[in-house]
Amino acid sequence: MTTRVDLNGTFWRKSSYSNGDGGNCVEIAHGVSGHVPVRDSKHSDNSSPVLVFPTNGWGAFLTAVKNGRL
């Protein structure tokens, strides 16, 4: 399934686990109704690939990680 989400003017936030050397981290976008766009923080220009997850799926993923299931 392909979901098109308008990311123009989107505010991206880098993971708090990211360090200054450009490590393996992600950025997520805020304010996109019903979706959580995610991209690689090393390639954070507007031409970078973006994965878009449904909000409830992203929440379930984070819960599983925090609970040690992933």
From TrEMBL:
Domain DUF397: 12-66
Short name of one Pfam family: DUF397
InterPro entries to which the protein is assigned, alphabetical: DUF397
Domain of life assignment: Bacteria
Protein name stated in the entry: DUF397 domain-containing protein
Species of origin: Streptomyces daqingensis
